[in-house]
Specification:
The complex is a heterodimer. Chain A is an all-beta fold. Chain A has no helices and 11 strands. In chain A, the strands form 2 sheets. In chain A, strands 2, 4, 5, 6, 9, 10 and 11 form a 7-stranded mixed beta sheet that branches. A 4-stranded antiparallel beta sheet of chain A has the order 1-3-8-7, with no helix packed on it. By secondary structure, chain B is mostly beta strands. Chain B is built from no helices and 11 strands. In chain B, the strands form 2 sheets. In chain B, strands 2, 4, 5, 6, 9, 10 and 11 form a 7-stranded mixed beta sheet that branches. In chain B, a hairpin with a 3-residue loop joins β4 and β5 (about 45-50). The radius of gyration of chain B is 14 Å and the shape is globular. The termini of chain B are far apart. The chains are: A mainly beta, B mainly beta. Chains A and B meet through β4, β5 and β10 of A and β5 and β10 of B.
Chain lengths: ~110, ~120
Amino acid sequence: DIQMTQSPSSLSASVGDRVTITCRASQSVARYLNWYQQKPGKAPDLLIYAASNLQNGVPSRFSGSGSGTDFSLTISGLQPEDFGTYFCQQSSGAPPTFGQGTKVEVK
Amino acid sequence: EVQLVQSGAEVKKPGNSLKISCKGSGYNFISYWIVWVRQVPGKGLEWIGIVYPADSDARYSPSFQGQVTISADRSTDTAYLQWSNLKASDTGIYYCARRARPAINYALDVWGQGTTVTVSS
């Protein structure tokens, strides 16, 4: 299985801050990399697909970049509603695998 | 509205059998693969397997092969995940999700609300 490693595992930032989460794959996944946001007690929601494409309805302060093995998710101007846990997921290899998650707290 | 609605929480004993469901609506259910994902605190999200409702073609992650059975009923737009011999280690939250088209990178674009399964003696 392709291993996905996220960093940091958690972070705390203030409203308006720029936040970056990284995700590294154990082998190349090209651009088959997706990001999800999960609020406590809820199912994950798709934020970004194919490394950099925003899902419909996702605010433009979210952006993604990368290819191959190294990817990042950036929130430009953190908002109070952006708290939660963020997961990366590769859809290149079988089975698809997820990162362990990054918990974001808004101060 | 496109949605997946899952069956309710379950509490079972080790050795019991169980079948949980995921009903789709608002889209052509048989045309999209349905994925099952497990979430256990401290272990993140794990891909269990996938089923194509049009022909019930099911595939499994090696970690779950032989441990669960995934199926679908196209007449009721429902997918299922079942166990014949539950273990305490099966405790977790189980999500179904729709796998998007290739143009959306096979991402999981619609999720059910989750079914909590607790296995305890």
